[in-house]
Amino acid sequence: MLEIGTLVDGKYKILNKVGQGGMSVVYLAMNEKANKQWAVKEVRKDGVLDFESVKQGLVAETDILKKLSHPNLPSIVDVIDTVDSFIIIMDYIQGNSLNKALEEYGAQPQENVIEWAKQLCDVLGYLHSRVPPIIYRDMKPANIMLKPDGNVTLIDFGTAREFKEKNLADTTCLGTVGYAAPEQFGGMGQTDARTDIYCLGATLYHLVTGMNPCEPPYEIKPIREINPALSSGLERIILKCTQRDPNDRYQSAAELMYALEHYEEIDDIYKKKQKKKLIGFLVSCMMTLVFAATSVWGYVSAEGKKSENYDNILKSAEKAENYYDAILTDPTRTEAYLQLNEFLTSDYILTKEEGKELLQIQAGLSQVNGAGFTENIDVLEKLKSENHNGYYDVCFITGWNFLSYYDTEMDRDRYSNAAKWFKEVKDVDSENGSIAAIFYDIFECTDKINQLHGGKVIQTQDLNAQRTKLWSMVQELKTKSNDYADDFKIQTWIEIDKLVNNNISDFLEVASKNDLVSLLNQIRSDISKVRGSNPEIVKLIEQLKISTADTITRIETAK
Known about the structure:
By secondary structure, the chain is an alpha+beta fold. It has 4 domains: 7-91, Phosphorylase Kinase, domain 1, CATH 3.30.200; 96-273, Transferase(Phosphotransferase) domain 1 (Transferase(Phosphotransferase), domain 1); 317-422; 426-557. Helices cover 55% and strands 11% of the residues. The protein has helices at 51-66, 98-105, 110-128, 193-209, 223-226, 232-241, 253-261, 268-284, 286-315, 320-329, 335-344, 352-363, 379-386, 388-405, 411-425, 431-454, 460-481, 486-502, 504-507, 513-527, 535-557, and strands spanning 7-8, 12-20, 25-31, 36-44, 76-81, 85-91, 96-97, 134-135, 144-146, 152-154, 161-162, 365-368, 374-377. Strand 9 (144-146) and strand 10 form a beta hairpin. Mean pLDDT is 85; it is low at 166-173 and 292-297.
């Protein structure tokens, strides 16, 4: 076990132990340079019988989480593989599990449970819309963290898997008995999105009744048999979620979300009240009712299909226009924006034509309105007004892709396009905000240096001020890169090498050759610690080794 005060990987200081499972211990750690707390999950070799098998499972878990970005999911920032242990650095989630809330207070208030269920539906919808879909398979109160702000975070992806369409019987008792769907026990078909629907239904049953489905009588009964005050609408939802046959359950998280948002409308008491009102209304104004009912039905049907249509469009997307359609369907969700970025940079190159596809989002997307006229929709403004965090995530990822992958010989083109997006994030109080601010300032600084060089009279004092500022930012960029995942580090180091290579003569006016060479040698030393598994990342590492060596040679031979 790690001792309190231990410094992991030279930067994560262990503060205290916050949890322990059968195979791992979780600590709270502080990165003092970044002034941020992290969770450190350690699995020691001497504490596990089949360490390599467990390690493979952890690698699979971290590989899944690294691909994800959702406000109700934790992020993986580092993986440290040592001789004695396997360590994962991830977001520290403040709060306690819902399991602890059940232990301390018993059944939870119905309104709270429904609100948590909506957030978990949103997470499942996000996971199921990945390509390929990710099936979580272990929803239960112990894996749901309740934060101080009342929101929840889904943790522990140890049993999650990527859906394989032809894998007809994929499961061998993975999940937790009581919460797990029947198909999770082998030989009963493969797990899919409907498996997670079952697990969520069993979890809601436990939360709202306090009855643990893992304990006798090992069944999920109608919740009003336990507490008659509960909603019959919620009872129907939970019973439908937990049907033995997957075809009898809700078929998607979007469908379940819709039911949760309208649970009162399927409640018996609500129906009786509505029936009385309906009779009176029919007597007084039959024709008005007909028109109103038609209008309401059309509206409700459209709203109910909106989320499902969004997911279906993404599942079948094959070109940029498909992602545009999804964005126009619901501009306030981030999945389509992020998947468009992933689609366009999957080969680690963003061509000029692909760059235009991304810039089209900034200009607005065209849509034919109800009158048959084409109108321009400012989708980013809609996203920003209703989903601030999602807007900042989209801007940062898009700016980063322009910076890292834009296929142009002019570095200024890369930076100017990236700066358009980083400008939106640079003032946000977050890690992405601080990185965006550095790159935005680098763009402005290099631009001013070029302008000063192009002037008729060289203003040495102003030029040296910009040179000093640029050199300072390059050093800060190297320091901050140490806190991020390997693929981010590699891309950042590539940018640092390019900046030094392109500005050697300017840097030598405010720094020594030893300073420049030392910075690049730090990068070369850090490269050796990166274990790249992706062929493209391995290729970038090799190219970086060569380019830094060439830059060092240029520095040493500079006059």
